[in-house]
Specification:
Helix content is about 30%, strand content about 20%. It contains five helices and six strands. The protein has a six-stranded mixed beta sheet. Strand 1, helix 1 (about 10-20) and strand 2 (about 25-30) form a beta-alpha-beta unit. Helix 1 (about 10-20) crosses helix 5 (about 180-195) and helix 4 (about 175-180) crosses helix 5.
C-alpha cells in the first residue's frame, strides 16, 4: 500500500485525511510516526507555510508528503487569527484556549459575524520537488456566540457554516468532509494527483 506522510501530528486532521485517502489505496502516516518534529512556520501566507511543512517532512522521511496550512479569518478582526489560528492564544495554546480568546475578542460585536475557514494543501513528491501540487479552498460562515457540538477540532464548535443551523462541531464527519474547506481542497488535490498518475493502486472514486 502506498504511503504518504502528513506534515502534522494533529489527530483531527489525520482522521480527515485517512478517511478521504483510504479509498485510493493510500496509507497516511503522521510525521511524528517518523520522529519528525515541527518546523518553524516562517511564512506570511498559508501557501508559504504549507510548502515549508511539506518539504521538511519529505526531506526527513524520504516519502511523498502532504501538508495542510489552514486557519480562520474573521472579518471583524481584519482577517485574524488567520495564519496564527493554531497559536492565537499563545504558542502553547490548545483549541479551547483559542476558542475562548476569539469569543472574548468578539464579545461586543452583534451578528452577523462573518468568517471563513481557509485551507491550502501542498503535495510534495520528494524533498527537492520544484513544482509541488497546490490547492486552496474556503468555507464561509459566521462565528457563534457560544460553543456547540463535540465533533471536529479547532474552532469548529463556534463556526456556523453558511446555509446551516448546526455548528461545524455538530456535523457528522461525512457532512463536514462534503462541505469543509479541507474537504473541498482535498477533492481538488485528489483530482490533480490522479491526473498526474500519483496513485499506484486502490479503488479510486
Amino acid at each position: 500500500m502506498q504511503q504518504i506522510v502528513l506534515a502534522s501530528g494533529n489527530k483531527g486532521k489525520l482522521a480527515e485525511f485517512e478517511q478521504m485517502l483510504s479509498a485510493y489505496g493510500v496509507t497516511v502516516l503522521p510525521q511524528n510516526h517518523f520522529n519528525v518534529g515541527e518546523v518553524a512556520e516562517t511564512g506570511t501566507t498559508f501557501v508559504e507555510n504549507a510548502i515549508i511543512k511539506a518539504r521538511h517532512a519529505a526531506q526527513i522521511t524520504g516519502l511523498a508528503a502532504i501538508a495542510d496550512d489552514s486557519g480562520l479569518e474573521v472579518d471583524l478582526l481584519q482577517g485574524a487569527p488567520g495564519i496564527y489560528s493554531a497559536r492565537y492564544a499563545g504558542d502553547k495554546a490548545n483549541d479551547q484556549d483559542n476558542v475562548l480568546k476569539l469569543l472574548d475578542a468578539l464579545k461586543d460585536y452583534p451578528a452577523p459575524r462573518s468568517a471563513r475557514f481557509q485551507c491550502v494543501l501542498v503535495y510534495m513528491r520528494h524533498g527537492a520537488d520544484p513544482s509541488p501540487l497546490i490547492c486552496q479552498a474556503s468555507w464561509e460562515g459566521q462565528i457563534a456566540f457560544e460553543q456547540r457540538g463535540t465533533h471536529g477540532h479547532g474552532y469548529d464548535p463556534i463556526f456556523i457554516p453558511e446555509h446551516q443551523k448546526l455548528s461545524a462541531a455538530e456535523l457528522s464527519s461525512d457532512e463536514k468532509n462534503a462541505l469543509s474547506h479541507r474537504g473541498k481542497a482535498l477533492a481538488q488535490l485528489l483530482a490533480m494527483m490522479q491526473a498526474k498518475g500519483v496513485f499506484t493502486g486502490g479503488n479510486s472514486q
